Each structure stands twice: as C-alpha cells, then as structure tokens.
Amino acid sequence: MTTNDQLNIRQGLSGSSNPNPYSEFTEFSRNQIKEYNTIFKKYDVDNNEYIDQMELKLMMENLGVPQTHTSLKAMIREVDEDLDGMISFREFLLIYRKAAAGELKEGSGLHDLAKLTDLNESGDVSQ
Ligand SMILES: [Ca+2]
Ligand SMILES: [Ca+2]
Question: How many angstroms is it from 74 CA to the middle of ligand 2?
Fold first, then answer.
C-alpha cells in the first residue's frame, strides 16, 4: 500500500464530502439513523443540511436545557471535525457515538442533547 492509498483511506473515513452514514455508523440501525435524521432536519431550520450555532441554541432551548454562547461554541467544537463551525448530519451522529461510548461529560451540553433525544431500540424517541 502506498502512502497515497493510506491518505485516500484516511480522507475517506473523515471526509464529509459524500458521507454514507449507514456504512460509517454501523453501530446504529437504519431506523435509528432515520430517526436521528428526522431530529436533525427538525432543527435545521433553514434547511441547509447544517446545524449552526443559532439552530443549536434553539434546539437546546426546545429540549429545555438552554445553553450559554460559550457552551454552544464548545458543543459544536467537540464534534466539528471539518472545523466549519457547524454540525453536519455526520457530525451530529458523532454526538450519539460519543454518548454511547461514554465520552461525553455528565451535565455537558452534548450529554444533555444526546440524553434528551435518545432513541429506544425500535428507533422511536424514548421520552
Ligand atoms: Ca441550518
Ligand atoms: Ca462541521
């Protein structure tokens, strides 16, 4: 394998240009990914396929856990792998991956977000 191949593979894994959440996030069922997408779309108010800071603010208010400006920025930074300051659907799924792996701090914004939008096994919102 050449260095170039390895580079291509790495870009394929972390690139967001043509994400296929079903093959990347194999720990989630198709149903779960669909439900997460429904949640994502619900809060992507301007429909540009990114949740920006303002939309995240509204989302957290809607979930009953309003966040400060600083906290919103920190939440985005934690999953913003392409550093565009917004959360793509792929990055949105990272929140749930981190939550499942226990990587989110209890009481942090992302922890609350994942908990409040958690799905049960059939893929429905559990609350
Ligand atoms: Ca948006
Ligand atoms: Ca991003």
Answer: 13
Instruction: Identify which ligand lies nearest to the alpha carbon of 55.
Output: 1
Domains, in order of start, for the chain: 29-116 (1.10.238.10)
Q: Which pLDDT tens digit goes with each residue over 84-113?
A: 999 999 999 999 999 999 999 999 999 999
Using only C-alpha atoms, the chain has a radius of gyration, in whole angstroms, of: 15
Note whether 115 and 126 are within 8 A (CB): no
Answer whether 43's CB lies under 8 Å from 58's CB. Answer: yes
* Residues flanking ion ligand 2, Cβ below 5 Å: 80, 82, 84
Based on DSSP, count helices (H) and strands (E) in the chain, helices before strands: 7, 2
| pTM score of the predicted model | 0.80
User: Bridge partners of 2?
Assistant: none
